[in-house]
UniProtKB/TrEMBL annotation:
Belongs to the 5-formyltetrahydrofolate cyclo-ligase family. Signal peptide: none annotated. Substrate binds at residues 52, 57. It catalyses: (6S)-5-formyl-5,6,7,8-tetrahydrofolate + ATP = (6R)-5,10-methenyltetrahydrofolate + ADP + phosphate. Gene3D superfamilies: NagB/RpiA/CoA transferase-like. InterPro entries: FTHF_cligase (IPR002698), FTHF_cligase-like_sf (IPR024185), NagB/RpiA_transferase-like (IPR037171). Its cofactor is Mg(2+). Its EC number is 6.3.3.2. Keywords: ATP-binding, Ligase, Magnesium, Metal-binding, Nucleotide-binding. This is 5-formyltetrahydrofolate cyclo-ligase. ATP binds at residues 5-9, 134-142. PANTHER family: ATPASE INHIBITOR/5-FORMYLTETRAHYDROFOLATE CYCLO-LIGASE, CHROMOSOME UNDETERMINED SCAFFOLD_24, WHOLE GENOME SHOTGUN SEQUENCE. GO terms for biological process: folic acid-containing compound biosynthetic process; tetrahydrofolate interconversion.
Length: 189
């Protein structure tokens, strides 16, 4: 079994590639339903990633429906590949979303939101372990963003697959998740 980040990335990208569109929808809905059990719904600002369909990421549309149904402020980001930083914007009815060169759907413009304002972050990932460590695509966008958030910001990984027992090459600066939610269960760290 793969245990380091590089091997895990390859392994989970392949597992994802094997998922059909129906499976992605079904599992994404199950993840959203499991999120309802978490004690996170008393906050105001929720950061959600918009899925890269080509990477077969979790469809966060179901989460967007939950948040708008609960009248929450939804925040989406735009990535800067030079600085590896992210800028955040309020998602409103007027927000125009456009895919960037990496097929990441991003807001074209909008009302900026500071990282310190964000209270809950739904974090994309490829793999995670039972200690709350995650493996992303390796570009460091989320590590940098999560470091800008307040320490009490709730970080929730979303995964189609269950956790690994341990990821070997974790750095001290890697920011751990508070929860990870899969279609089957919810992990709390």
């Amino acid at each position: 079994m793969p245990t380091n980040k590089k091997e895990l990335r390859v392994h989970y990208k392949n597992l994802r590639k094997a998922l059909s569109s129906d499976e992605i929808e079904e599992k994404s809905l199950a993840v959203a339903n499991n999120l309802l059990q978490l004690p996170i719904w008393n906050k105001t600002y929720y950061h959600v990633f918009l899925p890269i369909e080509e990477q077969k990421e979790i469809n966060t549309e179901y989460i967007l429906h939950l948040l708008s149904g609960k009248d929450k402020e939804i925040v989406v980001s735009k990535s800067d590949f030079e600085t590896r930083g992210m800028s955040h914007f309020l998602l409103t009815d007027n927000t125009k979303i456009k895919k960037n060169e990496y097929n990441i759907p991003e807001p074209v413009n909008g009302l900026p939101v500071a990282s310190e304002m964000i209270e809950v972050v739904f974090v994309p990932l490829l793999a995670f372990d039972l200690l709350g460590n995650r493996v992303g695509y390796g570009k460091g966008f989320y590590d940098k963003f999560l470091a800008e958030c307040k320490p009490e910001t709730i970080k929730i990984g979303l995964s189609f697959f269950e956790g690994e027992s341990q990821i070997e090459d974790v750095f001290e600066l890697d920011i751990k998740l508070d929860y990870c939610v899969t279609p089957e269960k919810t992990y709390s760290f």
